[in-house]
Amino acid sequence: MGVPGPDFSRKTALTGTLVRLVPARREHAAALHPLLADPEVGRLTGTVHSTDPGQDAGLSWSAAQIAEIYGRWSTALDRIVWVIEETATGRIVGESVLNDLDEDNLACGFRIWIAGARDRGLGTEAVELTLRHAFADQGLHRVSLEVYAFNPRARHVYEKAGFVHEGTRREALLFDGAWVDSHVMGILADEWRERQGMP
Ligand SMILES: CC(C)(COP(=O)(O)OP(=O)(O)OC[C@H]1O[C@@H](n2cnc3c(N)ncnc32)[C@H](O)[C@@H]1OP(=O)(O)O)[C@@H](O)C(=O)NCCC(=O)NCCS
User: Fold this and answer.
1) For residue 140, which of 189, 199, 98, 195 has the smallest C-alpha distance?
2) Cβ of 163 less than 6 Å from ligand 1
3) Which terminus of the chain, N or C, has fewer Cβ atoms within 10 Å?
4) Ligand 1: which atom is nearest the Cα of residue 122?
5) Is residue 138 within 6 Å of ligand 1 at its C-beta?
């Protein structure tokens, strides 16, 4: 029997070995707020435009504003936001997101960030869990993302998961007065299935 069409109101926890992805709620804002101040997250997600904190208001949301945003996202129909919980410690270390659901074309976007727990394999597993949900549980056909040219680590993690480079939005980001390309990457359901050894 085929998978029913995508329904992003179905927000379920996804359990791996190193991480558990828990649908984000308003109450997670207190844990997420300090993590969002991580300068590397700000730079690599395009949230800030300068290494000088005085030059940028990108990370100046209050905890109350973050709570309002995550509260809204907890019932959004076009996105699923999961907080990434490190299994070993129970700590929240970031978020993984399927967004911009396009039901007509069975497609959506993807984004992820981790703070204070990078380079230990958590991101790799969070990407795998999120893609499994997108293709196996939601029946999507395509997941796409953008990654800046100055972020080879994220690009490597995405390529490892099966994303392929589809094109480049040239000089899409202005950071510290320099233009940075944004690479568009995507993965299709058949490509994902083939990597899982599925027919
Ligand atoms: C991108 C991100 C989610 C990856 O999660 P992570 O837990 O740090 O990644 P992992 O530990 O699972 O894997 C990192 C991989 O990148 C590799 N890597 C690390 N630095 C690298 C670099 N400068 N260039 C290329 N590869 C690099 C590691 O060797 C590892 O690969 P391997 O598993 O083949 O050995 C996380 O680093 C992050 O949130 N970064 C800041 C925000 C960000 O970049 N978000 C994505 C925006 S598009």
Assistant:
1) 189
2) no
3) N
4) 7
5) no
Comparing CA positions, the residue from 127, 100, 91, 133 lying closest to residue 112 is 127
Q: How far apart are CA 167 and CA 196, in angstroms?
A: 25
Q: Which of 194, 95, 108 is nearest to 145 (CA)?
A: 108
DSSP 12: -
**41-72 per-position pLDDT tens digit:** 999 999 999 988 666 655 678 889 999 999 99
Ligand 1 neighbourhood includes 93 CB (under 6 angstroms) = no
Closest residue by Cα to residue 98 from 11, 191, 181, 185: 11
Please report the atom of ligand 1 found closest to the CA of residue 146. 48
Q: How many CB atoms lie within 10 A of CB 187?
A: 25
Q: Global pTM?
A: 0.96
Q: Is the CB of 169 under 6 A from ligand 1?
A: no
Q: Three-class SS of residue 16?
A: coil
In terms of CATH, what superfamily is 14-140?
Gcn5-related N-acetyltransferase (GNAT) (3.40.630.30)
The pLDDT of 172-183, averaged and rounded, is 97
